[in-house]
Amino acid sequence: MAISPVTAFIFMLTVIPISQAALSAHYYHQTCPQAEDIIYQTVHNTSIYDPKVPARLLRMFFHDCFIRGCDASLLLNSTPDNKAEKDGPPNISVRSFYVIDDAKTKIEKACSHTVSCADILAIAARDVVAMSQGPWWPVLKGRKDGRVSKANETINLPSPFSNATTLIQSFAKRGLNVRDLVTLSGGHTLGFSHCSSFSARIHNLSDPSINSEFAMNLKNKCPIQNKDRNAGEFLDSTSSKFDNDYYKRITMGKGVFGSDQALYEDFRTKGIVDSFAKDEKLFFREFAASMVKLGNVGVIEDGEIRVNCGLTN
């Protein structure tokens, strides 16, 4: 999740509706049948050498879809005339763009000008979940790549300091409901956060929702005069495995982000957290369904198929 002032966040939200574009699970079956295999092998091989890749690619997909919809605008590089999304403050910590670039290069050799960067990212997000022992789902394909990317729009990303009401409003602007919010937040089962995203919660604020022992552990890892820029905390205790441990920890007051723990402090979301904490299979089914729904947000039909994911054609 990205950091942004809550007040600005509320007023700058733009509506990005669920797209009516005709996506299909079989979109490339005739034109590039090897596309999904190429993407899987690329993601799998890079994940072996860099265990952080799964969490990074899943986060990349979320951050892309939440701004202009799932159009790969996050992948565009800044130019002298424009600062792009990837250089906006909340995305400075987004990493592993090279994995998508590598997959794109291989796909261009197999079937040029055919597979969009937006589809590659959507497929990669599914693959990293599945290879982390999470659910698999058929990715709907046929997205086009956008031509616009603006760093100042990244303030619209949900913040780790957001309360439940702000999060519900943010997801609603994208055609996603309260259940989608709680379900997709489960993506935090993979991942790590630097101290800056939760230090205020443990040092400057009195947050009664956090487990006192857990808070002390976080303070030890992230002291006020912290000089280790890499210090932080995994978002659940099985950070390389996609499971429901994230929800179990929230029920114990051990959510790392204030926005995570807020899901257990609000009557609209608490019951859903409890249900996922008790039933991992239910969480898996609903996560797969919500990811398909997220993948439909803001899909454009008048974009392009980029040859290089970092550049418009």
UniProtKB/TrEMBL annotation:
Keywords: Calcium, Disulfide bond, Glycoprotein, Heme, Hydrogen peroxide, Iron, Metal-binding, Oxidoreductase, Peroxidase, Secreted, Signal
Binding site residues for heme b: H188
The name this protein goes by in its record: Peroxidase
Required cofactor(s): heme b; Ca(2+)
Sequence positions that bind Ca(2+) 2: T189, T238, D243
Binding site for Ca(2+) 1: D64, G69, D71, S73, E85
Plant heme peroxidase family profile domain location: 22-313
Residues annotated as binding substrate: P158
Gene3D superfamilies: 1.10.520.10, Peroxidase, domain 2
